[in-house]
Amino acid sequence: KAYVDTEIAGVNVDNLVKSFVYGEEIADGDALFVADGNETIASPSSYYEGSGNDRSFGGVTTYYQMAQTFQFSEKTSITQIKVYLKKANSPTDNAVITIKNDSAGAPGTTVATATKSGASLTTGQVQYTLDLDSEVTLNANTTYWIVYGRDGAYDDTDFYYTYLTGDGTGYTDGTAYERDSSASSFSAISYDIPRS
User: Which residues fall within 8 angstroms of residue 161, CB to CB, at 6 or more apart?
Assistant: First the structure.
């Protein structure tokens, strides 16, 4: 069995367990851990976190969507994601967090989705652990996108925030992006969306 606890660019992998039975083939590229019960949980070092600020999404004239690209150094299966969220006023729909493939430097097809109801959020930043709608396996050294949006109408009164931190130089395997309602694509910004 392999037990892993890791988190990069907001993506969390908690206690991933892979059990091999006698005669089962181990595929090329699999990471194999032999456990004897005395293991400690390993986590990669966190990326730079400096001063930061809230950044809205889900508005019309404000920011429409936010995003963060990321990579894993090893092939990794995930079932959850950790994100910072808060609300402005009283949104009645859901904040939608989507993991997407990269398509020529833009978000591509959807890999997995997590949601958090606006009614359950507070007006202060909180880090939430959200279940993905399915377990997904992400390839090593491959760019993926975490896109922040909503499933209701975009609204300048009732919307959402995530959190930006640092100066964008600490996490080297991804970049934060923003998109306003008039833009057809995302624009890179000099921050990261933090992991903790």
Answer: 54, 55, 56, 57, 85, 86, 87, 88, 125
User: Could you report how far apart the first and last alpha carbons of the chain are, in Å?
Assistant: 27
SS3 33: coil
Report the C-alpha gap between 74 and 28 in whole angstroms: 12
Phi, psi of 189 (to 5 degrees): -130, 160
| 192 DSSP 8-state letter | B
Burial 104-114 (b: 16+ CB within 10 A, else e): eeebeeebbbb
Structure tokens at 176: 């934060």
Q: What is the pTM of this model?
A: 0.73
Of residues 132 and 64, more confidence is placed in 132
Query: CA 70, CA 143: separation in Å to the nearest integer?
Result: 6
Q: How far apart are CA 177 and CA 186, in angstroms?
A: 6
The residues facing 115 across adjacent strands are: 96
- Report the distance separating Cα 27 and Cα 33, nearest Å: 14
Task: Name the one residue in this structure whose structure tokens are 């069995």.
Answer: 1
Q: List the beta bridge partners of residue 84.
A: 127
pLDDT digits (tens, 9 = 90+) for 7-23: 444 444 444 444 444 45
